Amino acid sequence: MNMSCENFRYVEKVRPWRDLTFKFYSDGRLVIIDNVAEEVITPKDLKGDSKDFYVRKRIAFIKNQLNATRLKYA
Prior knowledge:
Shape: elongated
Order of helices and strands: EEEEH
Number of strands: 4
């Protein structure tokens, strides 16, 4: 299976101003990397604007997957 990945970088607008990279894989996996601390974090570690960013991108990703599946079997 062809594994693709969408990368998004986000810098939080309030302290501690974390620099985050979100990696959405085509199989549904997600990796969130704190670029300064160089560690992987989970969605439950997000708060405020970074959590909002994650939710919006996740919803867009799911919609794209559903549209691709619909077109494939239509």
